[in-house]
Amino acid sequence: MKLFRTALGAALLGACLGQPALATTQNVIFNGTISPTCTLVIATNGTMTVSPDLQTLSSHNSGGSAGTVTLTTTGGVSLSVDPVTTTTVPSADTTSTTWTPTYSSAGAHSIVETGSATAISTPGADVVSVHLAGTKGGSNRFANGNYQATVTLRCE
């Protein structure tokens, strides 16, 4: 029986040597995940100017300008501005100021000027204009000197 199996194996091997090899294929699958992300790059800082009645210091006043930031996102994020927490005012200005930051965007996402958070669901790039207004109440006025405030634009 052992001789029979050896002879049969040799015969099959001889028959297969003349045949082409059978080709096989296999699929290789690639997966990838992109988490919601965004980048913010400051293009220009803003400039505030005072109103004729000295009660508003704003980037919207004549001669003022918005700060600009380039936003690039995958979508699935929210854009917002934080309340102003860092200000520098001259020592002569002893009355309170209400600071109101706002923003708008143009590009892949058109956002009308707002101070509220805005959901961005689609990918794209935008130029975000950031504005700031400081206001005095009652008979209070802005004093002579240098003013500076920091607005934090947040994308998360």
UniProtKB/TrEMBL annotation:
Q: How far does the signal peptide extend, from start to end residue?
A: 1-23
Keywords assigned: Signal
From what superkingdom does this record's organism come? Bacteria
Signal is among the record's keywords:
yes
Name it: Spore coat protein U domain-containing protein
